[in-house]
Design brief:
Elements (H helix, E strand, L loop, with lengths): L26 E5 L6 E5 L12 E5 L1 E3 L3 E6 L5 E11 L2 E7 L9 E4 L4 E8 L5 E7 L3 H8 L25 E4 L11 H9 L3 E7 L22 E5 L1 H12 L4 E4 L1 H9 L1 E2 L2 E2 L2 E5 L14 E5 L6 H10 L1 H13 L10 E4 L1
Parallel strand pairs: 1-19, 3-12, 3-14, 4-11, 14-18
Antiparallel strand pairs: 1-2, 5-6, 5-8, 6-7, 7-10, 8-9, 9-10, 12-13, 13-17, 15-16, 18-19
C-alpha cells in the first residue's frame, strides 16, 4: 500500500490556530459507513447520534508542560528540551534542539539552576537520554518552568493552557493532547450520561511518535513508536459486556481506538497495562471499536490511515475533500468527525 494513496490537498488557511468557544461549538461531520452519507452538524448535536447503551471510551491522559528552555552550562547557549517519556525516576527520553550543541556529559540549567539536566546518551532513534537533578517534586518544578508543547503548526499563543487539556484529563504523562476529546464540555458529558450512554475511561500517554511523518513509500514498512497504555478491570468489563450484548463501543480519538485494539485478546479487552506500537491501516479488522470520534488529520499521516481502516480509504478521502470545500478547521484545535 503506497503512501501517496493517503495524500490530499490541504490549504494552510484551514489549520486551526485557536480553539472555538465554547468547546462544543465546533463543527461535526458525520460519516456513515453503510451508506457513504456525509452530514454537517455542530459538536453538541452528538446527542442525536448516540443512544442508550452506547459505551463512549475516553482517554483521560493529561498533557505535561514538557517544553523546557535552558542554558548550556558555561556558554549560556540556549537549549530547548522536549520531554517525551520517563525512562527512570529522574531520567527522561527527550528531543534536544539544537541537538549538535549539547554533547554527552554536558549540563543544561533551567530556571537559573532550579533544575539541571545532564545528557547521558544519544539513543538509536536520535533522541536524547537526560538525567535531571532538582530539589523538591519534579512535577512542581515542571509546572513552574515548563511550557505546553503545542504542535509546531500552531503558531498563535494559547492564553489558557487548560484549553489544550480535555475537561476529563487526569493522569499526567502526554506530550500531546488526545484532541478529539477537546470538544467535550462537562455539561455535554452529563447530558449523554442522563440519556443512558456509558462513559468509560482508559489511558494512553500520547507521544510524538503518533505524529511522526511516514517516510517510506510502502506504508507497511513504517514503524510506530511505543506509547504507554492502561485499561483497568472495570473499564474492560463494561466494554466486554457491551460487546456481548451487541451495544456500540465508540472510541473518542485515535488514541482510545489504538488502546482498545492493543488490549484485545480473542475478541475481549484484557485489563492491564503495557506499551503499544500498534499501526492500524486499511486491511485491519477492528475487534472492539464500532465507531470513532476524531479530528481532521494530516495528509499521508498514520492517523488518516487509521480512519481509512475503519471507514474505507475512498470514503475518507471523499469526506476530506468535502471538509476542505466546506472549510472545516483541521488538526488539534479544529473540527470533529464522527464515523458511524
Amino acid at each position: 500500500m503506497n503512501l501517496s494513496e493517503f495524500d490530499f490537498d490541504l490549504p494552510e488557511t484551514l489549520i486551526a490556530q485557536h480553539p472555538v468557544e465554547p468547546r462544543d461549538a465546533s463543527r461535526l461531520m458525520v460519516v456513515k459507513r453503510d451508506s457513504g452519507g456525509i452530514e454537517h452538524h455542530t459538536f453538541r448535536d452528538l446527542v442525536s447520534f448516540l443512544k442508550t447503551g452506547d459505551v463512549l471510551v475516553l482517554n483521560n491522559t493529561r498533557v505535561i508542560p514538557a517544553r523546557l528552555i535552558g542554558e548550556k552550562e558555561g556558554t549560556e547557549a540556549k537549549i530547548e528540551v522536549l520531554l517525551l517519556r520517563r525512562l527512570e525516576l529522574d531520567v527522561w527520553e527527550a528531543l534536544v534542539k539544537p541537538g549538535k550543541r549539547l554533547k554527552v556529559g554536558q549540563k543544561v540549567s533551567f530556571g537559573q539552576g532550579i533544575l539541571t539536566g545532564v545528557l547521558q546518551d544519544i539513543l538509536e532513534n536520535g533522541n536524547r537520554r537526560i538525567h535531571f537533578s532538582y530539589s523538591g517534586l519534579f512535577e512542581t518544578i515542571l509546572d513552574q518552568l515548563g511550557q505546553m508543547p503545542l504542535p509546531p503548526y500552531i503558531t498563535a499563543q494559547l492564553e489558557d493552557q487548560e484549553r489544550y487539556q480535555t475537561v476529563y484529563a487526569k493522569e499526567r504523562g502526554s506530550v500531546a493532547a488526545p484532541t478529539a476529546g477537546l470538544h467535550f464540555t462537562p455539561e455535554l458529558l452529563s447530558e449523554l450520561q442522563k440519556m443512558g450512554v456509558q462513559i468509560v475511561e482508559i489511558l494512553l500517554h500520547v507521544g510524538l511518535g503518533t505524529f511522526r511523518p511516514v517516510k517510506v513509500d510502502d506504508i507497511r514498512e513504517h514503524a510506530m513508536h511505543s506509547e504507554y497504555y492502561r485499561v483497568d478491570l472495570e473499564a474492560a468489563e463494561r466494554i466486554n459486556q457491551a460487546k456481548q450484548e451487541g451495544r456500540r463501543v465508540i472510541a473518542v480519538g485515535t488514541t482510545a481506538a489504538r488502546t482498545l485494539e492493543s488490549a484485545v485478546d480473542h475478541g475481549r479487552v484484557v485489563p492491564g497495562d503495557g506499551w503499544t506500537d500498534i499501526f492500524i491501516y486499511p486491511g485491519y479488522s477492528f475487534k472492539i471499536v464500532d465507531a470513532l470520534l476524531t479530528n481532521f488529520h494530516f495528509p499521508k499521516s498514520t492517523l488518516v490511515m487509521l480512519v481509512s481502516a475503519l471507514a474505507g480509504r475512498k470514503l475518507i478521502l471523499q469526506a476530506y475533500e468535502v471538509a476542505v470545500r466546506e472549510r472545516y478547521r483541521f488538526y488539534s484545535f479544529g473540527d470533529a468527525m464522527l464515523i458511524i
